[in-house]
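Quick question: what would this complex look like in 3D?
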Amino acid sequence: MERLRIDLGERSYPILVGPGLLHDAAVVAGSVAARDVLVVTNTTVAPLYLPRLERALEGKRVASVALPDGEQYKTLETLARVFDALVEHRLNRDACVVALGGGVVGDMAGFAAACYQRGVDYVQVPTTLLAQVDSSVGGKTGVNHPGGKNLVGAFHQPRAVIADTDTLKTLPPREFRAGIAEVIKYGLIADAGFLDWIEAHLDALLRLDGTALTHAIRRSCEVKAEIVAEDEREHGRRALLNLGHTFGHAIETATGYGEWLHGEAVGAGMLMAADLSCRLGWIGAGDVARIRALLERAGLPVVAPPIGVGRALELMGMDKKVLAGRIRLVLMRTVGEGVVAVDYPADALQSTLSAHFGATA
Amino acid sequence: MERLRIDLGERSYPILVGPGLLHDAAVVAGSVAARDVLVVTNTTVAPLYLPRLERALEGKRVASVALPDGEQYKTLETLARVFDALVEHRLNRDACVVALGGGVVGDMAGFAAACYQRGVDYVQVPTTLLAQVDSSVGGKTGVNHPGGKNLVGAFHQPRAVIADTDTLKTLPPREFRAGIAEVIKYGLIADAGFLDWIEAHLDALLRLDGTALTHAIRRSCEVKAEIVAEDEREHGRRALLNLGHTFGHAIETATGYGEWLHGEAVGAGMLMAADLSCRLGWIGAGDVARIRALLERAGLPVVAPPIGVGRALELMGMDKKVLAGRIRLVLMRTVGEGVVAVDYPADALQSTLSAHFGATA
């Protein structure tokens, strides 16, 4: 087991990473201080891991609610079910919400914990690679709105994160690969050496080697934490974490949430960011080819849907990362160094969009 | 105009109190820095004050949403309409939500502002006395749940509060008197001199004298701010603000939200707190009579509904101010000095409940 401390003053918390953690009652109960617990999970994860988690929490008063599985259920309506469960089980301010599942469960459980009685504790038990490397750090919680992703939410830090790498064995391979896209992202924006490591260990990661996974998750969380620590409320460097996301959101919104996985859309979006970075002369064509090859080796899609430039721009414009009408984009100054760009030529963006989204408009 | 600064470090904000403020474009536009504004109001207040507010905001991009009027609409469902309006008008992170109305509008607008894109600015323009003296300070926002009041919410400070005393001229007298109950509360918990002042100026307040109102609102906000400043996230002294509220919640819940106004329930609840404080020997029977007389002069109901002791206890037990099953109650050590009590004899509480809620149980 590796242990990473996220340093946020009085809201600091540990991330525990390793195989078999859910079997370890000392680890689990040691992370959940409250006597009264509501486990928020979904109907896919519940039969796989809820009994194990409940055993690890033996001696506490544990209730649970299983939400429908899928990004399309990350809504205010589904969130209301969590509040209903909290009220039904008469949980008070000293209760703890435990999120058992992927990013959707984590975002909703965390948001419910942020709002219930104006804030109760929560602990994350992420069971997808994406949630382990992304949602574990940053304190972002929330739900989607038909007008855009994560438009409604709160910043709320967990008390602890327990990332059991064994849970990835039941994760559909496609979702696992989508998580790898986010791991690659950390290399691209902040750590060229980690990118080298990923290239060298991709096969081990893809066969779910415990040691490789533990290192990849730990280093990903560490990179994210370094960036977030400098900038807890997203003004400057934190925007780097959105590499591929603005392009990716256009893909996700155009195709309807759920058709492309978030990590898949981010992966294809990172390739577009690389393409634009290359057009600006910041990285070379060889770098773009290298990134494309790594994404392809990871089994990730690299061809965006042909929605046309106009539609893509429109969807990027409604994206919440817009500042006063101007589209900020995260690009690469070099491979391993992300940069927030606003002063790129419009025709370079146009060319990138045209090359990837097709010329329909 | 009087100006009170609420000191919260970088989240400090001014409360402006006085007649005619909504006519003063310099005051209004000076408090709303954003270019893009969503005014959240209700169908009762909109025809009275929305055009005036819109004139004062001339030159900005102003949209508005009018919610149905009433505590029964303070729900997640109604909140969703505010999010819909924010999205529909394509408001971004630099937008400002302006709450024009009473406490319900303020709580929902503030909660929407807390959550939209994980937090945008908001400014309160309270048009009821209760909202002017209560919601202006403390940063509490939220909605009700069938299981209890304000069970879902957030702490979110406004950028400014504009309390125009002229808006009280269109307030139904019953709601005005309910607001007076909260003004009396500040005297009872923290300022015996202010209580004397209220007794001396009650007639002026009841005929909506601008000078008297401005002083009462300003002093009420000041007392609340002093208590909140010591204790921003409600651990100790802030609980004093709940004088009458635990008893009052039982009244409101038993009769269904809306039949008793919040301030009316708090008024009757304060009398119960006085009764219990007297049974404990902390205040005298003369003090109780004095408080009853003041409430009656203000036209407030002092007789609770006969719901029975058992039901009252049950409703007080579900109240969120419960810590580990124990009912904390705010009582009076002396008139003008509130105290949080947990160690009172159960039979004294029983006697108070029996005297006020009837013996049905």
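Answer marked as accepted. The first strand of chain A starts at residue 2 and ends at 6.
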